[in-house]
Amino acid sequence: MLCCxxxxxxxxxxxxxxxxxxxxxxxxxxTSNMTFLNDVPEEVKTVIKGAVHWMVTNYKGPAYNVLxxxxxxxEDVSCKQRT
Length: 83
Prior knowledge:
Blueprint: E1 2-4, E2 7-9, H1 13-30, E3 31-32, E4 35-36, H2 42-58, E5 80-81
Parallel strand pairs: 4-5
Antiparallel strand pairs: 1-2, 3-4
Helix pairs in contact: 1-2
């Protein structure tokens, strides 16, 4: 929560930041070039997809800015299954 001249403002930044860190860790662990590895448990895919959906729904800026602060940003936040 932020304080603005004595008022508490609940921006949700803490929830967005911690969720983004978890998603980045899971994506770095279970994908290669944004493609799921073959042995990824369905539970992991469900958590990643659900967390990304929650962030995109609750973030008040462009959806592609929710994750990945590197040099490559895209509006496609989906992961594809490697065949």
